[in-house]
Amino acid sequence: MASVLKLEDVSVVRDENSILDSVNWTVEPDERWVVLGPNGAGKTTLLQIAAAAMHPTSGVATVLGEPLGHSDLAELRPRLGFASSALARRIPRNETVLDVVMTAAYAVTGRWNEEYEEIDERRAHRVLSEWNLDHLAERTFGNLSDGEQKRVQIARAVMTDPEILLLDEPAASLDLGGREELLQLLGGYASDPRSPAIIMVTHHVEEIPLGFGNALLLTDGRVAAQGTVADVITSERLSDTFGLQIELTEQDGRYSARARQAAAE
Ligand SMILES: Nc1ncnc2c1ncn2[C@@H]1O[C@H](COP(=O)(O)OP(=O)(O)OP(=O)(O)O)[C@@H](O)[C@H]1O
């Protein structure tokens, strides 16, 4: 099976600043990646390239077999599922949850005059139930809790049956209960062999769901490490990447990290 994403020496320069610097990275259809790194490391920029929303300044980015810059992006976009808080801000607050998810089939936010087919509605209900949202189908998006809104964004992103699912900090701003519910759903989704490749950006190792086997650490636009979660998510590598001594613990496949306490005098 062909790779869903291949970046070869990809660099992005803005205002003479190097935002991504010679990134080489390949994502296979059955892989679930977590991308971690400090603020400003370039994570969102990397995700924008994977989402075919931005071209590299140099290097070659191939998304679903299509080299960016030589492809019709309108054809590529429905094959990608993307959820981010920036996208969520474009969702009309008074739209029903069912419509938020269903409009993904037409790559629009906000329901206008599209004729929806019964098959779309059936699929939307199925997706809502997979993300524990079926009881909220008729509620308006703006009145949902943060956790519910995050799940709606992901349900919308998977509605078109994408070949890559891209998630930019899906657990940000959630309380403990909301985070754990989301991680459980994401873990189940990631562990299902029918699910697409997944790339999830996060700031916290606590937010790595079960079922995510690969990790990429980014710092100052450069890849500090990439490979299996077990090889990459280590105290040493995180300490190097975040520039402070980090103590990492792992239990039953979930991680937590904190700064190492200086030894008592
Ligand atoms: N269009 C742009 N023009 C100039 N600089 C930019 C542009 N877009 C991003 N940057 C800068 O590039 C760097 C990386 O930004 P990016 O949002 O990709 O990082 P990030 O790792 O997602 O950060 P965070 O964790 O804070 O969300 C930042 O210093 C940002 O200010």
TrEMBL record:
It comes from the Bacteria. Pfam families: ABC_tran. Keywords: ATP-binding, Nucleotide-binding, Transport. GO terms for molecular function: ATP binding; ATP hydrolysis activity. InterPro entries: AAA+_ATPase, ABC_transporter-like_ATP-bd, Metal_Ion_Import_ABC, P-loop_NTPase. This is ABC transporter, ATP-binding protein. Residues 5-245 form the ABC transporter domain.
